[in-house]
Amino acid sequence: MSILYDYHLHSAFSGDSDAPAERMAERALDLGLKGLCFTEHQDPDAPDTGIDFTVDFASYFACMERLRAQYRGRLQIGAGMEFGIQPHLPGTLQALCETWPFDFVIASLHFVDGQDPYYPSFFEGHSERERYEQFFRTQLETLQAFPPESYDTLGHMDYIVRYGPNRSRFYSYEAYAEQIEPILQFLIGHGKCLEVNTGGFRQGLGEPNPCAGVLRRYRELGGELITIGSDAHEPQSLCYAFDQAAELLRGLGFRYYAVFERRNMRMERL
Fold this sequence. Notes:
By secondary structure, the protein is α/β, with parallel strands linked by helices. It has a single domain, classed as TIM Barrel (Alpha-Beta Barrel). Helix content is about 35%, strand content about 15%. It is built from eight helices and nine strands. It has a seven-stranded parallel beta sheet. Helix 4 (about 130-145) packs parallel to helix 5. It starts with a strand and ends with a strand.
């Protein structure tokens, strides 16, 4: 396996996982990783689904420090966050970044107008295309509201495709280029990374999020900065389809991926 760092994963500190952080670290060692970064869900003002998508950061960082001591010299442990961006939350993220020493911050759009595309009700009364276009427009508008220094990468850019009525059947970069290209240009213009999230393979899409067509266009536009993560919520999903992702990325012309420590970027060869 050529990708030796997983930079998107969740443990029991996220509301939708019950995996002990130590089990994730042990699995990383079994897989031969050099490092991993926990990116727990922090979604203020999330729709009421019965799940608390906020983190007890004091307990989280205490656990991270314990794991760093336990695995020192064997595995690099990063303490990150996946922040659910919404247009009114830039100040909330900025305050968190000023309070806690994160290694890495993912900005992810999970909600549109207070609704989660994960649930079929999001699509009721709307065409799939209408909702996909709305998702991408909202993503760009929301990114524009956040100071670029408050996050490092855009998470699972086409997340919505995992849950659409037809999923990726009628979806491609070309079909939504008008909405997607400005997002890619924004990231490139602000020196931000684009995440390659292999959860798309695990979800049965046959490719990562974003899809190969988006990654190809990102590279054509001059985009070089990518981060790679499995979006694992349990140990068995760590590094899911990393070999497939590496082959895809090299075929598209990518040669390096980014990892972070205390928000400082370092490039690793694919």
